[in-house]
């Protein structure tokens, strides 16, 4: 593979992050935008020189890497198109079902995939810090709550990033998140379970993304907070991941690998 000029394709090029990805890629001397896919007909500000493909398979053939921030309903199709290809996959789509996640893992046996709920370096570090806090602070003494806020157009809740932080806390406490998560409490819930990990989701305005992991005991409160002011941070992280994964062996990677950090165990 010629890595002197990296051919990067964008799945969902007309989306909010897709347009930022286009700017990031075209601003680099060592990358070329191989094209994009879009379900939207709103391509008025996409340069005529950018090829829009009607299907992902055609874009895969023209690309060394695909960056994908599309809807979870498209992920299965994308995984099948990328499987056994020579094209790496940077996947930032959230809300993916368990069955499709299994397909992603199978695809990672044939190509390198960098999958992250959030491509911000800051969020990656916040998630690691949440793990360390959860590992050090006993669950029967420190309640863990996660609060996330996003723009009104976001379609999934809790956010993928909030769930990733929750998974990190659950991993540190050696429990299954699905068995301890309390999402959107309502009505007469009874006293809080000592091992619960709570999630609250707020939606409004055009907030890019805010996440807080909160640990509360009888005598103190510890809050880890990350606020994204510009979606460009996600585009920058994804493009960084695209360059990182070239010539890596097939496998499923995350932002810890990209940042040169040991995976959380």
Gist of the model:
The two termini are 33 Å apart. By secondary structure, this protein is α/β, with parallel strands linked by helices.
Name the descriptors.
265 residues; NADP binding; seven-stranded parallel sheet; five-stranded mixed sheet; Rossmann fold; NAD; single chain; Dihydrodipicolinate Reductase, domain 2; 4-hydroxy-tetrahydrodipicolinate reductase; DapB_N_CS; 2 domains; NADP; alpha/beta; 32% helix
End-to-end CA span: 33 Å
Quaternary state of this entry equals single chain
Across the major sheet, the strand order is 3-2-1-4-5-6-12
Helical segment count: 9
CATH class of the largest domain: Alpha Beta
Number of strands: 12
Structural shape: elongated
Q: Major beta sheet, specifics?
A: 7 strands, parallel
Q: Order of helices and strands, N to C?
A: EHEEHEHEHEHEHHEEEEHEH
**Beta-strand percentage?**
15-25%
Helix % is: 25-40%
Q: What is the CATH topology of the largest domain? A: Rossmann fold
Label the CATH architecture of the largest domain. 3-Layer(aba) Sandwich
Which class best fits the helix and strand makeup? alpha/beta
CATH superfamily of the largest domain: NAD(P)-binding Rossmann-like Domain
Q: Indicate the low-confidence ranges by residue numbers.
A: none
**Rg from alpha-carbon coordinates:** 19 Å
Tell me what you see in this structure.
With 265 residues, this protein is α/β, with parallel strands linked by helices. It has 2 domains: 6-115 and 231-258, NAD(P)-binding Rossmann-like Domain (Rossmann fold), CATH 3.40.50; 121-228, Dihydrodipicolinate Reductase, domain 2 (2-Layer Sandwich), CATH 3.30.360.10. It has 9 helices and 12 strands. Helix 1 packs across helix 8 (232-245) and helix 5 (121-136) runs parallel beside helix 6 (160-172). Residues 7-119 form the Dihydrodipicolinate reductase N-terminal domain. One of its GO terms (cellular component) is cytoplasm. Belongs to the DapB family. The active site is at 150 (proton donor/acceptor), 154 (proton donor).
